[in-house]
């Protein structure tokens, strides 16, 4: 894999380093630069570790020990952190995630405050859609730009098996309400599990195309709290394309990928010329995109995770709670930059290779990181 070019004036870096090779250059003007020359401009902020589903590929059946309320970033701390990211460190887009962000009672207020401070900032949400029907309009009114809803199947039995909760109808109603509220584009995320919903892929795509939603299939990653993932068991991007080929012809979308995890394909009914829409495939395992990674993550308790698979976390909360002067802001920003400078090259190590010898799965599940 190619490493992104190192900007002029940067020290030369070991191309295969798992840890920092040189001291971080510059002050705030270098933004969230890492040792491989990538600059994070896409901030992903987890609002809570709690969730009302128990997806097999993420949460254990019994749930997890939720964070105590005083350990969570408050709305004010969130607004301050986003302000630091946008005003000083070059953040250009914000994703609110979790856990399930809709379970946070002050979600609408948080979005309204962020929108008021940052009128032009794209603010998106990733949600499981449970409870969305009653909140979609308020989210849109507060200034949410768009959202992604995770829904792996249209079948009640498979939904129950996958998520261990019988809430499919709520999710469907949520997607409809989001569309009615004018939140667009709506993206649908689906993880396929062998023998449960892999046979539903083409049907889910047809359903999404019919309604103008952009469906993305996601390769399952080793981020489940049960540590049950195996490289052999997961469904690969290649298999996904084969599953879809029974009904559809896929061809690469000519639009630039621009650092996005999803590779987009144009979709046509098999053997016909008319364009129906697009589908995305997020192939984090078999076709990694770490060389173009532009992401910085903050967990619900204020820890920077420079990579989804980071084994190192850098806690901003003590500094955030020390004070709110410019001097304190400088310290928080600088600590965030240090954390990002140490970002590993790929998959939390010096090379891509989820599940390879040498790969260590983080203790945190996807829900506790912020997907
Ligand atoms: N390997 C890897 N996978 C990621 C990363 N961010 C997101 N993903 C995967 O992509 C899936 C979809 O993420 P979303 O939060 O819906 O959004 P997105 O695809 O990143 O962004 P948009 O297309 O702009 O909406 C997640 O569920 C993850 O499985 C990342 O930084 N690294
Ligand atoms: C962690 S969830 C958080 C937001 C919300 N609860 C939801 O499900 O959309 C974000 C995304 O991560 C995805 N995800 C969770 N565990 C995953 C795994 N092990 N591999 C790949 N994607 C995963 C989910 O499908 C979802 O689209
Ligand atoms: S993927 Fe989202 S909805 Fe499913 S358990 Fe994880 S956090 Fe909850
Ligand atoms: S695995 Fe890490 S480096 Fe690779 S794309 Fe995801 S967050 Fe970025």
From TrEMBL:
<feature type="binding site">
    <location>
        <position position="95"/>
    </location>
    <ligand>
        <name>GTP</name>
    </ligand>
</feature>
<feature type="binding site">
    <location>
        <position position="126"/>
    </location>
    <ligand>
        <name>GTP</name>
    </ligand>
</feature>
<keyword id="KW-0004">4Fe-4S</keyword>
<dbReference type="InterPro" id="IPR006638">
    <property type="entry name" value="Elp3/MiaA/NifB-like_rSAM"/>
</dbReference>
<keyword id="KW-0342">GTP-binding</keyword>
<feature type="binding site">
    <location>
        <position position="307"/>
    </location>
    <ligand>
        <name>[4Fe-4S] cluster 2</name>
    </ligand>
</feature>
<comment type="subunit">
    <text>Monomer and homodimer.</text>
</comment>
<comment type="pathway">
    <text>Cofactor biosynthesis; molybdopterin biosynthesis.</text>
</comment>
<dbReference type="InterPro" id="IPR013483">
    <property type="entry name" value="MoaA"/>
</dbReference>
<feature type="binding site">
    <location>
        <position position="99"/>
    </location>
    <ligand>
        <name>S-adenosyl-L-methionine</name>
    </ligand>
</feature>
<feature type="binding site">
    <location>
        <position position="187"/>
    </location>
    <ligand>
        <name>GTP</name>
    </ligand>
</feature>
<feature type="binding site">
    <location>
        <position position="55"/>
    </location>
    <ligand>
        <name>[4Fe-4S] cluster 1</name>
    </ligand>
</feature>
<feature type="region of interest" description="Disordered">
    <location>
        <begin position="1"/>
        <end position="29"/>
    </location>
</feature>
<feature type="binding site">
    <location>
        <position position="57"/>
    </location>
    <ligand>
        <name>S-adenosyl-L-methionine</name>
    </ligand>
</feature>
<feature type="domain" description="Radical SAM core">
    <location>
        <begin position="35"/>
        <end position="261"/>
    </location>
</feature>
<dbReference type="Pfam" id="PF04055">
    <property type="entry name" value="Radical_SAM"/>
</dbReference>
<feature type="binding site">
    <location>
        <position position="293"/>
    </location>
    <ligand>
        <name>[4Fe-4S] cluster 2</name>
    </ligand>
</feature>
<keyword id="KW-0408">Iron</keyword>
<dbReference type="InterPro" id="IPR050105">
    <property type="entry name" value="MoCo_biosynth_MoaA/MoaC"/>
</dbReference>
<dbReference type="InterPro" id="IPR000385">
    <property type="entry name" value="MoaA_NifB_PqqE_Fe-S-bd_CS"/>
</dbReference>
<feature type="binding site">
    <location>
        <position position="51"/>
    </location>
    <ligand>
        <name>[4Fe-4S] cluster 1</name>
    </ligand>
</feature>
<feature type="binding site">
    <location>
        <position position="150"/>
    </location>
    <ligand>
        <name>S-adenosyl-L-methionine</name>
    </ligand>
</feature>
<feature type="binding site">
    <location>
        <position position="221"/>
    </location>
    <ligand>
        <name>S-adenosyl-L-methionine</name>
    </ligand>
</feature>
<comment type="similarity">
    <text>Belongs to the radical SAM superfamily. MoaA family.</text>
</comment>
<keyword id="KW-0411">Iron-sulfur</keyword>
<protein>
    <recommendedName>
        <fullName>GTP 3',8-cyclase</fullName>
        <ecNumber>4.1.99.22</ecNumber>
    </recommendedName>
</protein>
<keyword id="KW-0479">Metal-binding</keyword>
<feature type="binding site">
    <location>
        <position position="58"/>
    </location>
    <ligand>
        <name>[4Fe-4S] cluster 1</name>
    </ligand>
</feature>
<comment type="function">
    <text>Catalyzes the cyclization of GTP to (8S)-3',8-cyclo-7,8-dihydroguanosine 5'-triphosphate.</text>
</comment>
<keyword id="KW-0501">Molybdenum cofactor biosynthesis</keyword>
<keyword id="KW-0949">S-adenosyl-L-methionine</keyword>
<dbReference type="InterPro" id="IPR010505">
    <property type="entry name" value="MoaA_twitch"/>
</dbReference>
<dbReference type="InterPro" id="IPR013785">
    <property type="entry name" value="Aldolase_TIM"/>
</dbReference>
<feature type="binding site">
    <location>
        <position position="44"/>
    </location>
    <ligand>
        <name>GTP</name>
    </ligand>
</feature>
<feature type="compositionally biased region" description="Low complexity">
    <location>
        <begin position="16"/>
        <end position="25"/>
    </location>
</feature>
<keyword id="KW-0547">Nucleotide-binding</keyword>
<dbReference type="InterPro" id="IPR040064">
    <property type="entry name" value="MoaA-like"/>
</dbReference>
<keyword id="KW-0456">Lyase</keyword>
<feature type="binding site">
    <location>
        <position position="290"/>
    </location>
    <ligand>
        <name>[4Fe-4S] cluster 2</name>
    </ligand>
</feature>
<dbReference type="InterPro" id="IPR058240">
    <property type="entry name" value="rSAM_sf"/>
</dbReference>
<feature type="binding site">
    <location>
        <begin position="295"/>
        <end position="297"/>
    </location>
    <ligand>
        <name>GTP</name>
    </ligand>
</feature>
<dbReference type="Pfam" id="PF06463">
    <property type="entry name" value="Mob_synth_C"/>
</dbReference>
């Amino acid at each position: 894999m190619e490493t992104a070019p190192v900007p002029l004036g940067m020290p030369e870096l070991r191309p295969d380093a798992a840890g920092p090779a040189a001291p971080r250059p510059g002050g705030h003007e270098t933004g969230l630069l890492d040792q491989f020359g990538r600059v994070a401009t896409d901030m992903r902020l987890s609002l809570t570790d709690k969730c009302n589903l128990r997806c097999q590929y993420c949460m254990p059946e019994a749930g997890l020990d939720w964070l105590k309320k005083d350990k969570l970033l408050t709305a004010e701390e969130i607004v301050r952190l986003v302000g630091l990211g946008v005003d000083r460190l070059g953040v250009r887009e914000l994703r609110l995630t979790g856990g399930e962000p809709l379970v946070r009672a002050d979600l609408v207020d948080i979005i309204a405050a962020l929108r008021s401070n940052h009128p032009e900032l794209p603010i998106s949400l990733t949600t499981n859609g449970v409870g969305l029907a009653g909140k979609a309009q308020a989210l849109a009114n507060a200034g949410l730009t768009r959202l992604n809803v995770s829904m792996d199947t249209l079948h009640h039995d498979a939904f129950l098996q996958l998520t261990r909760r019988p809430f499919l109808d709520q999710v469907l109603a949520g997607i409809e309400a989001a569309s009615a509220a004018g939140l667009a584009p709506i993206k649908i995320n689906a993880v396929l599990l062998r023998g449960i919903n892999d046979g539903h892929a083409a049907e889910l795509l047809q359903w999404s195309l019919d309604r103008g939603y952009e469906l993305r299939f996601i390769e399952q990653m080793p981020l489940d709290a049960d540590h049950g993932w195996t490289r052999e068991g997961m469904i690969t991007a290649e298999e996904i394309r084969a599953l879809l080929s029974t009904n559809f012809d896929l061809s690469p979308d000519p639009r630039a990928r621009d650092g996005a995890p999803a590779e987009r394909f144009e979709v046509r009914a098999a053997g016909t010329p008319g364009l129906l829409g697009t589908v995305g495939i997020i192939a984090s395992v078999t076709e990694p995109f770490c060389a173009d990674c532009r992401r910085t993550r903050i967990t619900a308790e204020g820890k920077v995770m420079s990579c989804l698979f980071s084994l190192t976390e850098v806690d901003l909360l003590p500094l955030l709670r020390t004070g709110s002067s410019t001097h304190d802001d400088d310290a928080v920003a600088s600590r965030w930059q240090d954390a990002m400078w140490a970002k590993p090259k790929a998959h939390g190590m010096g090379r891509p290779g989820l599940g390879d010898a040498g790969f260590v799965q983080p203790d945190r599940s996807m829900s506790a990181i912020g997907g």
